[in-house]
UniProtKB/TrEMBL annotation, chains A, B:
Its main location: membrane. This is Magnesium transporter MgtE. It comes from Rhodoferax antarcticus ANT.BR. NCBIfam families: mgtE. One of its GO terms (molecular function) is metal ion binding. The chain crosses the membrane at residues 390-408, 420-443, 464-487, 493-517, 529-552. It comes from the Bacteria. Acts as a magnesium transporter. Keywords: CBS domain, Cell membrane, Magnesium, Membrane, Metal-binding, Transmembrane, Transmembrane helix, Transport. CDD domains: CBS_pair_Mg_transporter (cd04606). GO terms for cellular component: plasma membrane.
């Protein structure tokens, strides 16, 4: 990442290089943002001259960085020959303009077109087109596009995102990509764009970015904003404090509705996602909420105390994020007050952050089950990804060898009855499937709060019952198939018995493992399936080959 | 479910039975709601008399159904002896009152206590306590409690939920439990409580309940509500139309802010989750949105057209639900307009429904991977659950036998080198794990839109690269371990080669399977993992034993 250091020299300091040298160098480094910045400071005539000086390739590259405004100021100074060369690309494929329309419901098809459009534009080196396309897209979708691109193309596209929007885009990216792209920005630009962010987004950035950047962001903010920022950063990321925004609108219970309306009109704008005002007493203790929808329908003469809601209690700043999410879901909240231990109002949580949270959680669970990191870049360098996945494969190898070792104990038996080797995977796999069903059920039950101390015993009985019924059913089926195949009742019997045993143990393991992990504070989704497979494999092979050894030799 | 038919006889029709006979029968059937209803119609003196007549057990049961109001009217008519008997249970365990406080932030601990409290109260037959506890809990949490209880206790608790709240509770339940509990209600009660529901909740009910109930619900609603209901029902459940509510507040672009405020004050109340008003032209075409937060801060003299937002396009009524969810997430929407093909405003979608949708989707994906139904009752009768899971086990059995069949082709080889039987599970399991990593990555990539035509080729190269690197790494490791174990370089070599081959094929399969399923319109999360395991098992065993046969014999 050293390559990014040079960027940090501020433009206003006396630079040893001439503009032209700086530009050519920036072009060579592909630092388009820097090029545009330099161009902006130069007189159009000088730029025109520069364009003529450069060799055709550099010239094209530079021209791609000339924005519409500069272009118009530039044209008078350019000779017809040059103008002729550039005439072609300044035009825009008509088809693409269409997607200009629906930046809402119709974005679905676009998303695809946009990726295609951009990759085509990139191949043609038409960075202007890329910039134009990006301009039309919501930051969230820009983030999506960036994540869908391989690293090299990604940083080119990133360099074409307007500096003002980069901050917002960063907030929508997954950690790994966010960090790498933030590093590609000049610190001063990062700081500038961060100033436009809402506090909770900024906190999110600061928490994920490497210290050299995050400290820059923190220092850049001053006064009240700085204080709020630091107080918000003092809470763990996955707590109500980490989710909250520090900008609730407070009103007193004893004032009139009309007065509140006049007060709001003085504020001119409310923070985004403001659906309720917070009612607090003189000491700032939270008392209740006043819905805007109530405010605009209530009689002006009524007092806030007459129309406020008191049914939603303040969320303690220490509440776990997952619990906050469940609250929002259960109580259908749009935003909710966050209070400290003395029930003093210190912030609010808005549903948009909760939605992201829920998405991430479900994402994480799914990825963890396969030993993957949900914040990882799916286009990360092959070597990096390989190393990450190798760990998981290594863990699995241990369990595989454990199973193999069990089989190894019974080599003598296998030599006598080789059919056992043919059938033994069936026992293990049936156990694995049955176990994973119970495991998944319990993991989800824990997440939804359906599985609690109060009813584990009932659940246990059910799972055991189910596994016995299915065990008997499939034991018979498999046994008969085995007999039909090898014409040996002994093998069939042993196979059936082993399956029954393994399914029973699988149910017990599938229930016990997540409960134990949960008790230990380990995420069941992460380690659950590996441990389960180990159990079902070992028990499967042992019971099958063990029984065979006892009964068939 | 025939048992529920008798409920349908309406009370207002002349009943052949006397009140007392009806009550004793209802008590016997455990139809507490019906009992309470009958009691409400009787004169307190008569009830008192009834109480004295009944045998102690029935008396207790009946007393549990006497609510506070009736109790006070009853006392004067009761003899001291009886009063004495009941004095005990009318009192309430003090501890339980505590959980009365925080119906918001502090619900987390409660949830647990509540389940415990209720089960204790049930064992003591203290239905009154149960009713009291339920009264304090938000419908969503009541639903959670019901889902955490085994069927018998569940229906007892259900019978103690106030009729008014049953409708709301139903909307929070998963389909299977929802249906069974709705069946336990008297149709007239179901209809009554349904009238209190918001349209989108009602639609949701009608779509999931069995026809006899849903038709009753539909017919019960009349006039405008009926029309809206039918139009909403005409859209598929998983489309914007199925998610939308038909109650947007419309305003014209040319009216003044002050006028809008006066208009709203005339409405007195706004639909829940109203954060924006919809701006439409004379023909009802959607033009833009006016935020309440803008409305309360804007100058009264300004026109709506001056302060309205036009950046959010109307969501087409045909948009897929998942796409709607992504829109809400990307654009941080609280609610959004739904338009027909002529861009005419026909409804709005609110974020609370989107939150539920996201939760359900993530739930479903996780459950489907284990072949489970996310709408199923985790306390469903053992026999029912067994049958459901048996299907999945059966499917898996096919793949297991396929793998076994492959092994069977090589019995001769296994007889010569029994060590192969010991090691072959390692090849299969390593392949399975590696494949599932790619599979998960792609399934999620498809969901997030990260994986598209535009970049599949790149993804392919990466996955192949990763699998080769990891393949080589673990091939060597495993080979050496095998050599160390069996002191046979041949076996080690074959094992390593097989692992390399299987990991490569696993990566290809993990990438191809979800893409193909997605193309076929099958949910990759559902069938993906089974197919993958089949592939990795078959290829694993075949490559290992095949190579062994060629090279070692």
């Amino acid at each position: 990442m050293h390559s990014t250091q040079p960027d940090n020299n501020h433009l206003d300091e006396l630079s040893p290089l001439t503009d032209i040298e700086q530009i050519t160098q920036a072009l060579a480094d592909g630092k388009n943002k820097r090029v545009r910045k330099l161009l902006a400071r130069m007189h159009p005539a000088k730029v025109a001259a520069l364009l003529e000086m450069l060799d055709p390739e550099q010239r094209q590259a530079l021209w791609q960085q000339v924005d519409a405004a500069l272009e118009t100021r530039l044209r008078p100074h350019m000779n017809l020959d040059l103008l002729g060369q550039f005439a072609v690309d300044s035009g825009d494929a008509p088809g693409s303009e269409a997607s200009d329309a629906g930046q809402g419901g119709r974005t679905a098809p676009d998303a695809v077109n946009q990726l295609a459009d951009i990759r085509i534009a990139l191949e043609g080196g038409k960075l202007k087109r890329v910039g134009k396309i990006l301009l039309r897209i919501h930051p969230a979708k820009v983030a999506g596009l960036l994540e869908s691109l391989p690293p090299t193309e990604r940083s080119t596209v990133w360099s074409m995102v307007e500096t003002e929007r980069t901050g917002k885009v960063l907030t929508y990216l997954h950690d790994e990509i966010r960090i790498s792209l933030a590093r590609q920005l000049e610190v001063e630009d990062l700081v500038a764009t961060a100033q436009r962010l809402e506090l909770d987004d900024l906190v999110d950035l600061i928490q994920t970015l490497p210290s050299e950047l995050s400290s820059a962001l923190l220092q850049s903010s001053t006064g009240r904003r700085r204080e709020q920022l630091e107080s918000m950063l003092s809470y763990p990321e996955d707590s109500a404090g980490g989710l909250m925004d520090a900008d609730p609108i407070e009103v007193r219970a004893n004032v009139k509705v009309g007065t509140v309306l006049r007060y709001l009109r003085l504020l001119e704008t409310l923070p985004s996602h403001t659906d309720i005002l917070m009612v607090v007493d003189r000491k700032g203790h939270y008392q209740g909420t006043l819905r805007l929808s109530t405010l605009v329908t209530a009689e002006l003469g009524l007092r806030v105390s007459d129309v406020m809601q008191t049914d939603i209690a303040g969320i303690s700043v220490h509440t776990e994020a997952t619990e906050v999410a469940r609250l929002f879901q259960d109580l259908d909240l749009l935003s909710a007050p966050v209070v400290d231990d003395d029930n003093r109002l210190i912030g609010r949580i808005t549903v948009d952050d909760v939605v992201d949270l829920i998405r991430q959680d479900s994402d994480r669970a799914m990825m963890q089950m396969a030993g993957l990191d949900d914040e990882a870049d799916i286009f990360a360098p092959v070597l990096v990804s390989s190393r990450r996945r190798a760990v998981w494969l290594g863990i699995n190898l241990l369990t595989a060898f454990l199973a193999a070792w069990v089989i190894g104990r019974f080599q003598a038996t296998l030599e006598h009855v080789v059919a056992l080797a043919v059938l033994m995977p069936i026992v293990a796999s049936m156990g694995g499937v049955a176990g994973s069903q119970t495991l998944t059920l319990v993991i989800r039950g824990l997440a939804l709060g359906q599985v609690q101390k109060g009813n584990i015993r009932i659940l246990l009985n059910r799972e055991v019952g189910i596994s016995i019924l299915n065990g008997l059913l499939w034991a018979v089926v498999v046994a008969l198939l085995a007999v039909a195949w090898f014409g040996d009742w002994g093998i069939g019997g042993v196979l059936g018995a082993a399956i029954l045993i393994n399914l029973l143990c699988a149910a017990l393991a599938g229930l016990a493992i997540p409960l134990i992990l949960d008790r230990l504070g380990i995420d069941p989704a992460l380690a659950g399936s590996v441990i389960l497979t180990t159990v079902t494999d070992v028990i499967g092979f042992f019971s099958f080959l063990g029984l065979a050894t006892v009964l068939l030799l």
